[in-house]
Write a structure and sequence with these properties.
Layout lengths: L14 E9 L1 H11 L9 H6 L9 H16 L5 E8 L12 E12 L4 E10 L2 E12 L2
Antiparallel strand pairs: 1-3, 2-5, 3-4, 4-5
Organism: Streptomyces roseus
GO cellular component, one term: fatty acid synthase complex
GO molecular function: fatty acid synthase activity
Amino acid sequence: MTAQIKYADVEVGTELPAGSFPVTRATLVRYAGASGDFNPIHWNEKFAREVGLPDVIAHGMFTMAEAIRVVTDWVGDPGAVVEYGVRFTKPVVVPNDEAGALIEVTAKVAAKLDDNRVRVDLTAMSAGQKVLGMSRAVVTLA
């Protein structure tokens, strides 16, 4: 697959379509099984509170993966992402109810680079708090 977005058609400041990603306790259990990360802070409310967390929290790598979906959906090819990094600033707290939590992601083209690449800066929020800082991806466009 190749990126569907053309480098020549993108300007600095171009906003990508935003994404909202629900997270429930069941989502975290499935992610734990897929990732092998069974740390009890991601599924055991009592344990999470005992170690000072407000409740069960989403895995950091899960949060990162949900956020980059905004970029991969926009570009049309996950392989077009050549760099991606974040700083974890706040956890995504996932209450034990049907609604769970919501990760809301916005992104925009921050720079045009050489070789048909752009840098995309992402903002990921949950419960009104920024959960990822310095969230940036470099993407190769058509």
